């Protein structure tokens, strides 16, 4: 993929839009099946998972860099499923909740 940036200020914005690649052996998509993945490549051991992360937000500070928090959330999923490689994580559903005025909760379901 090639992205042309003509303004130096846009570099930060584009970097927020780029997702880090998953570890080798993981196929990660938001749809029910991985497009183009040969049916014989993966074992159909269907399981559902949920990973949650909850933290206090310091008073007067905004919830900064949500993409970094979601990346850490996915890293925890990759770590827990590392023995199931090759692994397809499909139909991912992310949510952000604010259960208390000073707390944030992120979750991923797949």
Automatic annotation (TrEMBL):
Coiled coil: none annotated. Transmembrane segments: none annotated. Residues 23-110 form the C2 domain. InterPro entries: C2CD5 (IPR038983), C2CD5_YbjQ-like_dom (IPR056430). This is C2 domain-containing protein. It comes from Timema podura.
